Amino acid sequence: MTGVPASAAGGSSGAQGARGSAAAADGGTPSEVSGSVSGPATAPESGRSPRGAKIAAAAVNQASVWNVANLLTMLRLVLVPGFVALMLADGGYDPAWRSLAWAAFAIAMITDLFDGHLARTYNLVTDFGKIADPIADKAIMGAALVCLSALGDLPWWVTAVILGRELGITLLRFLVIRYGVIPASRGGKLKTLTQGVAVGMYVLALTGWLASLRFWVMAAAVVLTVVTGLDYVRQAIVLRRRGIAERAAALEEKEA
Fold it and tell me: What's the Cα-to-Cα distance from 18 to each of 60, 122, 203, 223, 250, rounded to whole Å?
């Protein structure tokens, strides 16, 4: 977003750029910007930003952290210790406690679907959300997998494969971020959905054919985990090579 409130329309172009950059960097909405920097412009004709520009930008940044997308992310973080307590209550095998643990896990998975969508749709992306959202995702899934393996419901190698892949891909994204961003693929989204359904079925105390079905759902989740992980590695290699080539070409052009 690069627009400024009507009340600041008389300000200098430098002031407008400062406000627009602050709003865009923090994901602020037009109403947030107008509410924070309303009033007559006082920038000098030299084009320098007014003294209050930095204060206004800081106010926008601070206010936008408490948006609905970030609140949903915080809710997921709070649900993690609650889920673990419910999962391990009374020895970890009581169907009633396991059902409550499943409810907490389901809420966390549902909020994971909505917070990112809300942040992108309504321009609520913040630095806090970029960091906290993946942490919340890994925390709730990791807690569920570790609890299931500790209780003997899920082999440890399954937990190791899934968590190893998730942590490895997250690290890989940070390593190649200087060259670009690896977009989420359809396979990755299907993997996340399958993992959530499989883990949720294991959290519940299922018996009979449903207990057999969850085995195959988890098997599909493991396969998708490995396949999509290898695909992300391939994308990272291509992205890195392309970025290096583009930098080399730009350097040669500059020297010429």
Answer: 12, 21, 50, 48, 29
Q: What is the pLDDT of residues 42-62, one digit of tens each?
A: 444 444 444 444 444 443 444
Report pLDDT for 96: 94
pLDDT at 181 over 60: yes
Q: What share of the chain is helix, strand, coil (3-state, %, to 5)?
A: 75, 0, 25
Give the mean pLDDT of 88-106.
94
- Would you say how long the chain is, in residues? 256
Average pLDDT over residues 74-85: 94
**What whole-number distance in Å separates Cα of residue 196 and Cα of residue 216?**
14
C-alpha distance from residue 129 to each of 77, 111, 116 (Å)? 12, 13, 9
Q: Which of 150, 155, 139 is nearest to 198 (CA)?
A: 155
d(C-alpha 95, C-alpha 199), whole Å: 16
Q: Is the pLDDT of residue 11 over 70?
A: no
pTM of the predicted model as reported, rounded to 2 decimal places:
0.69
Alpha helices in 49-126 (DSSP H): 53-64, 68-88, 95-121
* Dihedral class, residue 180 (left if φ above 0, else alpha if ψ from -120 to 50, else beta): left
**CA gyration radius for the chain?**
24
Give residues with Cβ within 8 angstroms of 175, minimum separation 6: 236
